[in-house]
Write a structure and sequence with these properties.
alpha/beta; seven-stranded mixed β-sheet; 4,4'-diaponeurosporenoate glycosyltransferase; globular; cell membrane; about 35% helix; transferase; Nucleotide-diphossugar_trans; 10 strands; about 230 residues; membrane; three-stranded mixed β-sheet; Spore Coat Polysaccharide Biosynthesis Protein SpsA, Chain A
């Protein structure tokens, strides 16, 4: 039985989006059983704005000024969560990941929890865009075509049981694609990785994302590269 759920939110210069993100998380975590301890950690990564101040409703804000990859940033948040959950076994603890430009659905945390307790070590779910796909009229169709044919793993919507996460070494030093890399390593190690349609997040459709080669880069490509 899961007894603790921790959420890690990396944030770099997200003063305009971090508060809506945290409000959505509070609503979602309130849907968990009362017996489940819950904790939110925001990692303010080299911010030059008021992100850390506006994240004060989180249980902890970790501020880092040194250059780190996104994998290391997520791991830093996880170490803070585990330190808070010293009384909970790793097998009874779930790490949830989202992003500062993302708002989770009110049933998000509960959907992750149910799926882990049913049959999963790792869970991902849909990441819907909060605005239309930018670009020419066919951009939206091309975007949705990319989402078919296999699991789409998003750091903005990823849950992992702590014992599985620690067994494969966490996210590690990954400049980009840390979500897909972790998912691949979990599967290769024999852990059960599942897609949960009920665990939904809504993420921004901005074109200036913080992660290189992330969703923003994909949306820029769709805007700038019309079908041949």
């Amino acid at each position: 039985m899961i007894t603790a759920v921790g959420v890690v939110v990396p944030a770099r210069d997200e003063q305009h989006l971090i508060e809506p993100c945290l409000r959505a998380l509070r609503h979602a975590l309130a849907r968990l059983p009362a017996s489940v301890e819950r904790w939110v950690c925001v990692v303010a990564d080299r911010c030059s704005d008021d992100t850390a101040v506006r994240a004060r409703s989180a249980d902890r804000v970790v501020v880092t000024r040194r250059p780190l990859t996104i994998g290391e940033v997520r791991d830093l948040g996880w170490h803070a969560v585990r330190a808070a959950f010293t009384g909970h076994a790793a097998a009874d603890t779930v790490l949830l990941n989202t992003d500062a430009d993302t708002e989770v659905d009110v049933n998000w945390a509960a959907a992750h929890l149910r799926r882990v307790e049913r049959d999963a070590h790792a869970v991902t779910g849909p990441a819907e865009l909060a605005a239309p796909v930018p670009g020419p009229p066919d951009a939206a169709a091309r975007y949705h075509a990319m989402l078919t044919g296999g699991p789409n793993v998003y750091g903005a919507n990823l849950g992992v049981r702590a014992d599985a996460f620690e067994a494969v070494g966490g996210f590690g030093v990954r400049r980009t694609g840390e979500d897909h890399d972790l998912w691949r390593r979990l599967g290769a190690a024999g852990f059960r990785c599942r897609v949960e349609p009920a665990a939904v997040v809504r993420t921004s459709a901005r074109l200036d994302g913080r992660a290189p080669d992330g969703l923003a880069a994909l949306l820029r490509d769709l805007r700038e590269k019309p079908v041949a």
